[in-house]
Amino acid sequence: MKLDKKDISIYLMIGLTLVLPLLVGLYMQQFATFRFISLPLHSTIESSGAIIAFILSTIIFMMYGKDLELNHFHRASFALIVMGVFDAFHAMVYPGEVFVWLHSLAIFFGGIFFSLVWVPDAKVSKKTYYYIPFSIFLIAIFISVISILYPSLIPQMITQKKEFTDIANLLNIVGGVMYIIASFYFIKKYIEDDQIDNLLFAGHTMLFGSAGVLFFFSSLWDISWWFWHSLRLFAYIISLYFMLRIFYQNMIDLESSNTIVQTSNKNLTKSVKLLQEYRSAIAKGSIISVSDLHGNIKYVNDEFLKITGYTKDELAGKPHNIFRDKDTPKIVFKELWDTITSKQTFKGLIKNRRKDGSSFYAKITIVPILDENGEIFEYLALRDDVTQLVKSQSELKKHFFTDTLTGLNNRFKLIEDLKDHYIPHMAILNIDNFKSINDFYGQEFGDETIKEISNIILELSFQHQYNIYRNHGDEFIITTKSDENFESFVENIKHFINIIRNKSIKVKNIDLIINLTAGMAKTSKSVEQADLALKEAKKSNKSFIIYSDNLDVQQIFENNIQWSKKIKEALDDDRIEIVLQPLYSNKENKIVKYESLVRLIEENGKEISPYYFLDVAKRTKLYPLITKKVFQKTFKALNTIDSNIEVSINICAEDIFDEDTRSYILNLLKQSINSKRVVLELVESEGIESYTQVKEFLDEIKSCGVKLAIDDFGTGYSNFEYLLKLDADFIKIDGSMIKDIDSNINKYNVVETIVDFANKNNMRVIAEYVSSKEIQDKIKNLNIEFSQGYFIDKPKRLSEIV
Question: Taking the complete model, does pTM exceed 0.85, yes or no?
Answer without folding.
Answer: no
